[in-house]
Amino acid sequence: MERVPLTRTEFASAVTAITSAFGDPTRRDIYLHAHESEAGVTAGEIATAFDLHPNVARHHLDKLVAGGYLEVSTDRPERPGAGRPSKHYRPPIDPDGHRGELQVSLPVKHDDLLITLLGKALELLPPDQAEQMAEEVGVEYGRTLTTRMGTDGEHSFRASLHAVADALAGHGFATRAEQHGTELRIVAEHCPFGGAAVQHPVICAVDRGLVRGMLGSLYGEASTQTESSLPMGDEVCITAVDDH
Fold it and tell me: Disulfide: which of 106, 121, 155, 165 matches 14 by Cβ 3.0-4.6 Å?
């Protein structure tokens, strides 16, 4: 199979994503531990095995889920009233039902031809309609991402925003959540769509929709607005978020 070289943007995004998932040595050990468990692991089991507070253990596991290195399933108690459902974290299962191998795969793979085709197709529509369609696609995919993360909806607005940034970083957006005055926003230093987004700015609406869709699942309805973007000549892409 022919290997397609990464662009500078893709390389930077991949490094950021992998660092976010595996930059912490404890998190690397937790990943290996989870990968060796046939039944998967719970946050409580990881807390005991690594002498961590359960919330810290859950944070590490959720980081690995956001990067696509683990998946979550919710196992309900066999007896009614036996307690809350427990989350089990496992390596992804391939379509044949086999456990995935150890991996630190680059999450920024995409087909430049298809993205360029998408941009040109959207440009055939009236601008407002094209932007609305692109954002709706982002919203739907954002909801799908949070479903894969096994979220339970019990998140504060700020915690949800950081979870969104982590998940997007795991998919090549090189994002972080930050506060700017009284405003909360998602900052993306690199975009996996690369030059296609610069040539077809309407694609940026997908990013805005991703943030809105993920927040909708994690926290509740929120409004998003693009404050700056690479196609606009800015150095970074910034999506401002309002929970009102």
Answer: 106
Does residue 191 lie in a domain region?
yes
99 in any annotated domain: no
What pLDDT, on the 0 to 100 scale, is given for residue 2? Answer: 46
Residues 6+ positions from 196 with CB-CB distance below 8 Å: 112, 115, 116, 118, 119, 203
Q: Which domain CATH number covers 49?
A: 1.10.10.10
Q: Is 191 left (phi over 0), alpha (psi -120 to 50) or beta?
A: beta
Does 97 fall in a domain? no
pLDDT tens string 171-192: 777 788 888 887 889 988 777 7
> Would you tell me how many other CB atoms lie within 10 Å of the CB of residue 100?
16
163, two tokens: 């979870």
Domain extent for 142: 112-242
CB 50 within 8 A of CB 26: yes
